[in-house]
Amino acid sequence: MTQHFLLSAKARTLSLASIFRMTDEEAETEFRNVRWEGGKPVCPHCGCPIVYECRRPSGSLRFRCKACREDFSITSGTLFAFHKMPLRTYLAATCIFINEVKGKSALALSRDLDCQYKTAFVLSHKLREAMAFELKGMQIGGEGETVEVDGGYFGGYVKPANHKENRRDRRLAKNQNGKRKVVVVARERGGRTLPSVFKAEVDSMGFIIQRVNPESKLVADEATSWNALHAKFDVARIDHSQLYSNGAGTYSNGAESFFSRMRRAEIGHHHHIAGAYLIRYAQESAWREDHRRAPNGTQVRAVTTLAMAAPTSVDWCGYWQRSRKAA
Hints:
The chain is of the alpha/beta class. 33% of the residues lie in helices and 13% in strands.
C-alpha cells in the first residue's frame, strides 16, 4: 500500500523546535527575506530604497527612510502590522496553524502561545485572510477542463423542542431562524478551489459565471439550483440519490472532499463556523485542500509570504471588534 503523504518524511520540513531555537535576529532576517528581495528594506510610504536602521531603546527593529523621514518596521503595511508579540512568535503561530490538517481552534492556539483567546482569534483570522489573498480575482477552468460545483449549508442551527408534539420540521423555511448560509464551491479537477458564501445556492450564478472559464465543462448534482448553468456552460449532472459516479467522469467527489474537510473542521475544532466569518473558514479549507501535498515548511513560507504581501487587514486592523463584518 502506498504511504500517505502526511506520513512521509517529505511532509515534515519545518518543526516548532527549530523556530523556537531561532534568535530574534534570525527571525527578523527570515521576515526581511520574505518581504523584500534580498532582505534589503524599501520604504512602504514612498518606495525609497535608501533606508537605515534605528532600533528603539527596547531593541525592536525600526527603519527610517532618508527621503520622507518616516519610520517603519518589517511588518508595516502588512497583515502583521501593529504586531506586539516577537516575530518569532508569529512564525511559530503560522507553523502551528499550518500543521493542523483540518484547522486550528483559537482556544488551542491561545494555549500554545500563552496569549489571550482574543489575540489568538484575531491572529487566526489574519492567517485566513492571507490564504484568501491568494484566491483574489482567480479564475479557474478552461478548454478541456472539468469544474465541479456544489453547495453546503452551515450555521442557523435550530434546537428541537423537548416534547415530541412541539417539534417542527426544521427543513422548512418558516421554522428556521434565517441565519443559515450556503458555501458554494467551484473546484477544478487537478487544479484550484474557489468558495463563496450566499443565502441560497441559486444566488451563486453570477459568481460561477464570473470566476469559471466559459469553455469549462461543469459537473453538478440534480439540485434545481444549478439548472440555470445550462445556459452558459456544458453541464453534466449526477443524481446522488441513485449513484455518486457513473463511471464516465461524471462525479463531484472533489467538491465533496472540500466539504468533508470543512465539516470535520467545524465538528472537531471550531464547533461553530457561521455568520460574518464563514467565508474566511471556507477560504481556509480551500487553501488547505489545494496545498495538502506540499511540505509543511513550504506551506508556512507560502502563508508568511502572503501575509507580508497583503495590505493591512480589512477585518482586524489593530483592534478587537466582533460586530464588524468580514469584507
